[in-house]
């Protein structure tokens, strides 16, 4: 790593989330010197079909990259790292976008991670009970790539499947676009494509599910060269990509990470000394990184493989090299809060009032809750309003995509107070979902003492406090709010050779900011609400059984 007197080295981190692309210029201490973001397009041509455009996303990357390096001596930029959602990008044999829709719109060449079109395909894959399923929590998710590939083969054979030359996870598409290297990151292949870090591809799985053509091609369409995240790719940034991004040609470009995993790297390695945290002096395996954006991902690592039913993994070396990873998740969290708030009758009034005060709607709602709570703790406002948050199925630990959302305790009034309390109950439901995931991980062998939160929702103090109160665990927030971008920059820093390992880079570049402790005095109340939370899903299953019966 460069010493104190040497000129500063900079890395560019690029994070492609569901709703926007973010870039940052980060130095070797993990400090963000510049930040830019740019929204990206999403299409929902049918219910549960979600599509994006790889060209639109690359164009957004170019806009934000140029912004963050403005006025900087380009010679000091040493590396570039990408992370992105685990969406499926489809290109033809000449690397041109191919449509993933019956309309034949080739702009829309990405099936997004949250797309649930491949329900029938994933059922059939799960019915095989193939041994690779052991490594995705026992049940493959409809959000992974195998069911989506099978859907393309069964539904768009001539227009897409037969013409396809390359199926990329979005993070790998970006590193290919920057370097021309088609090698895939171990992270994406292990987490979403059933690849094993130890044994490679399992031919029998692909043959059994009806995708034997991928094997015949020696996996050239889905990746037969695999590199660990942070490894330097080819000869670095190509002249063409350098021009697009406004960066120097030849700088190191890293094998990439899925966004949640980059968030994990950005927060989990921080030095916690002096903050009064139980995880000080405990191994890093006692920390759970929770990356909360459109969805939430719960990343826990272990020295030995831990099989947690309904929780993805164990994945070897998919996030921190040498460690196994379990990934719990909630498919919609930020998206659910937005859905509840924006769909309420009092939303126009909320928007007008928040705008008049120059606040975000969330900041306004938080202060409104403070106003109506009177002397009681804010969380007690939902004593008779309860939410089950699986409006897009349950990712973990129930791994049941048929589950739906539930709200109990509605009244006839629809004013701002009702909206604020419904918003609070939704935030709490998401935190109860996290508690359920932690309990599943702990009963399988994890021992979690501290949460490390990042992502857009970690900017919401109510969301953070509810996670602390409801899980009973302290929550660490990073010094850099955009810590997913620190994770992406860690990759660029490793690829540049300035750090010897991902572990060294993440320990030096992630820093503790604020710590939020649980209000233990409220525990009894939340324990009771948790009992109701568990009853909600039990009842939902009973309703389904009644309706299925004769
Ligand atoms: N300042 C904020 N305060 C409260 N919530 C926020 C704030 N900014 C973003 N969010 C929430 O975070 C979510 C988006 O998080 P983000 O990490 O940007 O998403 P993604 O990575 O999926 O694009 C939004 O759905 C919104 O609910
Ligand atoms: O499954 C994933 C990670 O493994 C998805 O990429 C992730 O959940 C989407 O991220 P975000 O909600 O931040 O857009």
From TrEMBL:
EC number per UniProt: 2.7.1.47
Keyword Kinase attributed: yes
Domain Carbohydrate kinase FGGY C-terminal: 288-495
Gene Ontology CC entries for this record: cytoplasm
Residue span(s) of domain Carbohydrate kinase FGGY N-terminal: 10-266
Pathway: Carbohydrate metabolism; pentose and glucuronate interconversion
Alphabetic keyword roster: Kinase, Transferase
Keyword Kinase assigned: yes
GO molecular function: D-ribulokinase activity
Uppermost EC category: transferase
One of the GO BP terms on file: pentose metabolic process
Catalytic activity: D-ribulose + ATP = D-ribulose 5-phosphate + ADP + H(+)
Pfam family, one: FGGY_N
Stated role: Postulated to function in a metabolite repair mechanism by preventing toxic accumulation of free D-ribulose formed by non-specific phosphatase activities. Alternatively, may play a role in regulating D-ribulose 5-phosphate recycling in the pentose phosphate pathway. Can phosphorylate ribitol with low efficiency.
Family: Belongs to the FGGY kinase family.
Protein name from the UniProt record: FGGY carbohydrate kinase domain-containing protein
Species this protein is from: Bos indicus x Bos taurus
The gene coding this protein: FGGY
